[in-house]
Amino acid sequence: MSWQRELDEMERRAELARQMGGPDSVAFHQGRGKLTVRERIELLADAEGFAETGVLAGKPEWEGNELAALTPANSVVGVARIHGRKVAVQGDDFTIRGGSADGFVGQKGSWAIRHAYMNRIPFVRLLDATGGSVRHFEELGRTYVTGPEIGGGAGVDDLIWQVPVVSVVLGSVAGAPAVIAADCHFNVMVKDTSQLFVGGPPVVKAARGLEISKEELGGEQVHVFGNGVVANLAESEAEAMQQTRRFLSYLPQNVWEAPPRIAPEDDPERREEALLSVIPRSVRRIYDPRRILELTLDRDSFFEIQPHWGKARITGLARVDGYPVGVMINNPRENGGSTDRDAAEKIARLIQLCDTFHLPLIYFCDEPGFSVGPAEERSGIIRAGARLMLLSRLSETPYLVFITRQAYGVAGGLQYRRGDALYRRYAWPSAHWGSMHIEGGVTAAYRREIREAPDPEAKREEIEARLNELRSPLRTAHAFGIEDMIDPRDTRPLMVDFVRDAQSHIATKLGPTSRIPYLP
Question: Up-side HSE of residue 105: CA atoms within 13 Å toward CB?
């Protein structure tokens, strides 16, 4: 006796579910320049690398005992293969009830989160959902007290301590899904088609009497360029999936595994002549900091995170001798490279990411100090700076520093590592440092002497010239105030040596980080 008839019926019903909201709804969705949830997953996963769970979940309509129609749950879940590794995926289906939480069926909305947690694999949420709807009250015949289970968000807070979590914002995302968009290690939105807000324009109008568009309220200008809630911007949905795949490629499956190495194709002993002249002799001249990254990291391995926000510091992930690392470098083209509040928060996020997933952190330091001025004081730079100092002290990830030019003030002191975690520091001959800049400090420290001089300006210049004679890093090296002065061309070989040595240190630290739990 065969069960083929039942299998055929299962496939018929699964095919009904794969039609999503139906041809008209799908056509309307695609007519807005957007992909369906199934097309998105196809771009995210390896070829034929998605195993769906719960395809039959939905709201059936019956004619007697026969199924007449099936409205599928508006969430597609399963396990994708990304670079051959398993990743739990949840994709919102906007063609059914606009992705609203009242389109969930059973526990399908939170299945992928639970599966990621139990199996210790990364979690990717493809967000195109509006959260709850008052329409749901009529269906229930009551209201409800909201809790973590509303919106399918249960467990995300537990996940970010243990496995990589990525949110991809692919439409107008509001309510509980908007919080999920930020509750992750990396997020990305799509230019012109993604918006993110606690409450959309109708809610804002009801609460504030304000007419506002979706873009004005929560587009990329707000969240990518304005407040840094979303890390990266993609030109298309396909690029958003590629960024997600690339981000995950640097991270382990969970905190109990070491970051994945790939076979290196770059010479570990590569010494670039261009490094001798990349830093200008004049302290007033700027340079391209990304050039230093190109000349030292594995070729084409740098993946920048938050390139449009906190731009005084460039941060991202890269590889050194095939090993994943976190990287940051001051950007003299933005605010002179001085750390403002946004840059401080951006640095803090990178430190937390590296600590959580045991990535060595490499810092090319050209820090003129925390940004000063009335605007910065109003922004809360002191609080942001204090938090950054605390995170730096608590961090146990292997830390390698190259002081390429400046290291001044409290912010400049963040290149120093306390404690017994693995740490090395080198200085290029272009480096100089101190508690504060000579040019600004002379006016404060020699105020009376300058004021009483016959020619105050000449006196100030005389004192500055005298102190500048003491600025040579070689004088600091004589006092062992800096461990090693190096030829800039030796940067990559020294970096490779450090990252190789870091692997045995990382092996002793695997597991959840106790000193710096990840906080979005």
Answer: 20
Beta bridge partners of 328: 315, 363
Condensed to tens digits (0 to 9), the pLDDT of residues 88-131 reads 999 988 878 765 655 566 678 789 999 999 999 999 999 998 76
Q: Which residues contact 262 (CB under 8 A, 6 or more apart)?
A: 319, 322
Residue for token digits 């240190």?
505
Residue 65 CA to residue 417 CA, distance in Å, equals: 70
Mean local confidence (pLDDT), 409-430: 90
Tokens of 167: 């949110």
Range with lowest mean pLDDT among 154-158, 303-307, 354-358, 483-487: 154-158
* Predicted TM-score of the model (pTM): 0.91
Q: Say which CATH superfamily domain 273-431+482-507 falls into.
A: 2-enoyl-CoA Hydratase; Chain A, domain 1 (3.90.226.10)
> Which CATH number among 3.40.640.10, 3.20.20.140, 3.40.1740.10, 3.90.226.10 corresponds to the domain 4-57+68-249?
3.90.226.10
